[in-house]
Write a structure and sequence with these properties.
The protein is of the alpha+beta class. The protein has one domain: Carbon-nitrogen hydrolase (Nitrilase/N-carbamoyl-D-aminoacid amidohydrolase), CATH 3.60.110.10. The chain contains eight helices and 17 strands. The strands form four sheets. Strands 8, 9, 10, 11, 12, 13 and 14 form a seven-stranded mixed sheet that branches. Helix 1 runs parallel beside helix 3. The longest helix has 19 residues. InterPro entries: C-N_Hydrolase (IPR003010), C-N_Hydrolase_sf (IPR036526), Nitrilase/CN_hydratase_CS (IPR000132), Nitrilases_CHs (IPR044149). Belongs to the carbon-nitrogen hydrolase superfamily. Nitrilase family. Pfam families: CN_hydrolase.
Amino acid sequence: MANTIKASVVQASTAAYSLPDTLDKLEKLTRLAKERDGAQLVVFPEAFIGGYPKMSTFGLVVGDRQPEGRDEFVRYAKAAIEIPSPAITRIEQISKETNTFIVVGVIERDAGTLYCTAVFVDPERGYVAKHRKLVPTAMERVIWGQGDGSTLPVLDKSFESASAPGTTVDNDTSMLTEWLTSRTVRTYYYSQGTQIYCAPTVDARPAWQHTMTHIALEGRCFVLSACQFAQEKDYPPDHAVANASARDPNNVMIAGGSVIISPLGKVLAGPLLDAEGVISAELDLDDVLRGKFDLDVTGHYARNDGECRVLLLDRGLMLLPSAVVFEFKLREPPVTSSQ
């Protein structure tokens, strides 16, 4: 069992849109994962830095935009970070000091546009990559821009073996924060040899657990899903809530559900519900090969009775750096001799 690493998933909220307080929280929880569980990889939720504006309307209805909504957007944009920035430098410092690889969801500000982004920070190399959410969901499209295929990282990272110190474990880690129901995007990640599939989210619905299990089984990869747990007290005092007449600082806004799942669909940790916390598991990367023994959706379990063409598509227009288009041709019926 020399091919193992220790990974942690953090379930927590933004600290009331306060960047300094949220970075302090990130450091505290990273150190907890390292010191308590020996984590080498730590995954934080979607929009952990910058915040997920649950219940906000930004003063919008179809055909009208209210001034107070513009003011709310200003406040939200000011809580976002640029890449690079002092905030990224702080995360790099935390990663280096704790010797942990950090994946964290942030709200990125690029000029006048915000993006729901995840950043990858290596303890040795610092910031190494980011992924911008390709298609924000529903109302999110009002406040976040769309990403493109230039930020779909699959990273090759070496870790020291958790079970055999002194030996090295190589793995491919991918990040995806949405489009989980898009088979094309998932297939791209699977085709790159993804072993650890990080899925920061704010989706606390029970159906999310089924989606995570399906991806683990389909991709024969470990799935690390980090969801926020947020209460009213974790937002600014005047933030919108579901029932304004019954405000309670302990009312749950996002219920969590963080989970770690193996390539064969076994839940290794979680799902954690209705509380902040850190869940951890030891990942035996040989389980990826054990799973691919009978299912490799971009290899031996792919269709082989057709013609496969790899088309390089425009990144900006098609969102993906490349796509695999399968054109299946029906086999001609056997020729039979006429009687």
